Each structure stands twice: as structure tokens, then as C-alpha cells.
Amino acid sequence: MKTILLLVASNIFMTIAWYGHLKNESIPMWKAILIAWGIAFFEYCLMVPANRLGYGNGFNGFQLKMTQEVITLVVFTVFAVLYLKEPFHWKYLVSFALLLGAVYFAFKK
User: Fold this and answer.
1) What is the pLDDT of residue 60?
2) pLDDT at 32
3) Measured between alpha carbons, how far is 44 from 50 in angstroms, rounded to an integer?
4) What 3 state SS string does the chain have?
5) What is the pTM of this model?
């Protein structure tokens, strides 16, 4: 459970670092990059322990990556809808269902 919580927290930082600047185009690119790097530092401070803990508790590398990708999409979806004000289409639900299928098969014994 710690792994999942750390992955969620790290993905919140990652999403803000990568996409938070999109609505403020008045910031020069070099400043956006430096700000993103500063935010991404905290992502790494959470992601590395998440992966270490997960790997030490029985997740393999593929399982960690698949789990991280699903968390990334969930966090990004909330961000895109609430912050970027982008519409959510039914085709995204289908895409997410297929990714959840990938996670299922990654964890299947």
C-alpha cells in the first residue's frame, strides 16, 4: 500500500511539472523548464522509494511500471479535466479499460 501511495504522490508532482505550465504561455520556456525541474525533483524523491519498496515487497519491474502507468493516467485525467478544462470522451474510458487489462495480465500468476 505504501508503494501505491508513493506512486500516486509522485505522479501528482510529475503531472504538475510536465503539464502545469500549459495554461500560462506568458512564462518564458527556460523558466518553465527550470520550474518543472524543481517540481520533478520531488517526484523523484517519491518515485525512487516507491519502486524500491514495491520491488522489495514482491512487485517485479513490469508490475511496477504497469501500475505506475495506470496511476499516471488516473492522475492526469483528473488534472486534465479539472485544471486544463479538457473534455473527457468515452474513447478514453475504453483506452483505460484496455490498460487495466494489461495490468491484470502483468499480475496474473
Assistant:
1) 93
2) 95
3) 9
4) CHHHHHHHHHHHHHHHHHHHHHHCCCCCHHHHHHHHHHHHHHHHHHHHHHHHHHHHCCCCHHHHHHHHHHHHHHHHHHHHHHCCCCCCCHHHHHHHHHHHHHHHHHHCC
5) 0.85
C-alpha cell at 9: 504522490
pLDDT the model gives residue 22: 93
Q: List b or e across 59-90, with b for residues whose CB sees 16 or more CB atoms inside 10 angstroms.
A: beeeebebbbebbbbebbbebbeeeeeeeeee
C-alpha 109/C-alpha 106 separation (Å) is: 8
CB within 8 Å of 51: residues ≥ 6 apart: 3, 64
pLDDT for 105? 86
Residues of the chain with pLDDT under 70: none
